[in-house]
Amino acid sequence: MAKGAIMTDPRRLRGHKATATCCIASRDRPGLVATSGEDGCVCWFDMRCKDVLFVMHVGDSPISSLCFKPGNEDIIYVSSGSEVKAFDVHSAASWKILESYNYNKEEINQITCNSRSCFLAAADDGGDVKIIDIRQQCLYKTLRAGHTSICSSVQFLPWRPWEVITAGLDSKLVMWDFSKGRPYKIVDFSVPDTDGGGSAGQCLNPAFVHSIAVPEVDIVDKVGKVCVVARGDGVVEVIDIESELAAIKSKSSSKPGKTSQSRAKHSALSSDTENQNGRKKLCLDYSLGGHTAAASCVAFSMFGEKGKYIISGGNDKSVKVWDWSRYSNAGETSTNRDLIHLNINLSKKVNWLCSTPADSENLIVCDTSKVVKVYTVA
């Protein structure tokens, strides 16, 4: 398929009776995909089969998020309302709940497990994040006061076993030591850009953070210790986490005990794209062919050379597949305009997306319809 081609005829996965909200793909069983919807159901699909494998009726409330248990994908966690439930895939037909957690006070937006399958994090509308010990099946810690608005997204840092990163509709990215329950770094995207780096969004929306992604543990060495941020102003920004931590250490000698707060503009990719504070940045914005409305979700590619692409979806009814490995250290505009590997136009806004390890039918997209779309990225 030619770079930049627009695909218009996806495969359609039918099974939900209301809007599809989330999707996850198995790493252990390529082609196995689970999707959730506002109908309170989880649908299971095998890309080798034409129809839905089976449907789990979790409840009457919309399902907001899904995640597998790393190392044991027979276990799936589902968030609905303020509750997290765990199910055994093999007993899906009986819908027997293995575990249930009701620690969040507000509606949960995202759940995720750490790579060691010790902890689960649940981010909610109240701005809180509950860290649940899934081995002891109890609440481990509440991360509070990091966000002043809805906490939309959460991810564990696989290379730092006691650290988690959260994002919210207060335009903040917060890095936490969850063993201590307090933040050690706050990145504020609402702070105006002063370095002329061109990271301002195309649209007038605030830079709310709708979604974040970090590389899984097996590709960290290749892609770097980064976090990708999908922002409300349409920008998809790559942040070099270790650069952030280095900035904290450089300030700690003069201001010990202070939580560092700054404007994020970094990338592990280029030493030539630094702002006036000496920090690196990579902003995938409309000037490079990016989103013209809020970027709603983001993920690393799991097919082919894992992590080669950053995939983002937006409220502009499009999915962008970014070949961020092509980013020019020299900042050559002509080269960087070729970062878009594939642009997919949809008829609906994007709720969520994920990729699979397969060579074909490897991009799964949940838009605001009840039909899940499947594309091939070659």
UniProtKB/TrEMBL annotation:
This is WD repeat-containing protein. The lineage of its organism: Eukaryota, Viridiplantae, Streptophyta, Embryophyta, Tracheophyta. Pfam families: WD40. WD repeats lie at residues 288-323. PANTHER family: TRANSDUCIN/WD40 REPEAT-LIKE SUPERFAMILY PROTEIN (PTHR45296), TRANSDUCIN_WD40 REPEAT-LIKE SUPERFAMILY PROTEIN (PTHR45296:SF1). PROSITE patterns: WD_REPEATS_2, WD_REPEATS_REGION. Residues 250-262 have a biased composition (Low complexity). SMART domains: WD40. InterPro entries: WD40/YVTN_repeat-like_dom_sf, WD40_repeat_dom_sf, WD40_rpt. Residues 250-275 are annotated as: Disordered. Keywords: WD repeat. SUPFAM superfamilies: WD40 repeat-like.
